[in-house]
Every structure is written in C-alpha cells, then in structure tokens.
Predict the 3D structure of the following.
Amino acid sequence: MKPVAIFRHLLIEGPGYFATFLDNNHIPWQLIKIDAGETPPTSIDAFSGLVFMGGPMSVNDDLPWITPALHLIRQATANDMPVLGHCLGGQLMSKALGGVITGSIKEMGWGEVSVANNSIARTWFDDSTTFDTFHWHGETFSLPEGATCILSSPYCENQAFAMGIHLGMQCHVEMTDRMVRDWCSVGAEELADPNEPSVQSITEIEKNLPERIAQSNAIAARLYTKWITTLK
C-alpha cells in the first residue's frame, strides 16, 4: 500500500493518535512538515490518502503552501482518494470544495458535540448521539456543495461534514495527553482568564485528562476505522 500523506502545519499539532492508529493497523504514512519548510507535492500519485492536521493560521491567509494544498484536495476528491481534515484541515477541505471560512465563537477546551440525525452521520458514529471532544479554534467552515453536516456543538453549527468517504472536522479527535498539555502551555496566557463560556481554564482542560483522552481515542478509532476502508 502507498503511504498516507499527513500534512503538519505546526510542530505541536502533529498527527497524535491518528499516527498511533495507522501504526496499529500496519498502514504506512509519510509526514509532510509544512512547518519546517517542506512543500506540498504536486500530485497525489504517491499516496493512498491525504490527511491535514491543525494549525494557528487561517486558510484565508496568503501563505505559499495553501493553494497547492487546495489543489491536492481537489485532485484527491476527484479521484475518490480519501481525504481527512482536523480543524484547519477541515477548513482547507471546505475551501477547496467551494466552502467559505469565517470567524466564529472561540472554542478552547473540552465540550459536548451532538451527532446529526441523518443516515450519513449514523454510518460514522453508529449509535452515539453526543460525546465530549476537544476544541481549539476561532474560525469555522461552511458546508461545501454535496457535503452533509454530521456533527455540531452549541457554539459551532458545523463541527464535521462528510462527503462520501471524505471527512472534514472542526474538532480535534486526534488529541493525546501530551498534545493537550503542550497546547495549554503555549496558550496559557489566553486561557489564564477565560471570559467566554466556550473557553476553559487550564485546570478545567486538564481535569480527568487520561479518562477524557481514552474516550476521545475510542471515538477517533471509530471514525478512522471507517476512513481507512477505501485506502488503496
């Protein structure tokens, strides 16, 4: 099998649990370190799937790697190669496929999301109706044409969309214990005096962290298990 291409946009926003999941399932992967100056490939031919991780930048920023990334997403979806996006990655997918990225209520920390009441959402989440997941964003995406919203939160209507085997998420199901602590450290000033109900303190975020990560990994494994079914 060709490797899954994983695009990293910031050192501390790597693939996390997703990499562990691929390793456990003996699926090869290649990390493309955009944050270290690596450039996106011009073709999808060397890969079996594309995965885009998060980052602090905006998809609307004038950065040299964004247009090539959007081009790769369009190539992949046109050729039925599975694409997966986490937060910024979901926003890249939305923009590539005709959606719009706008500012939203900031979400930082753990928060409940609701699974949409439609058949497509059921194929991804089975019988789950709500669960807690990790959030860290200040922008959000609209649904591209042909996509279905499968997840929402009280502060963000579009938390995830599906388009066939392609999955774009605003939330972060890829988190590990180390990632949560690193993000809290980097964002400590912003989290020191949260003045929005959708932003938690570091104490709140790190409370019962091992249990929360275990629950998050279980949800992620379900999504990732479905996503890898069409890798070739």
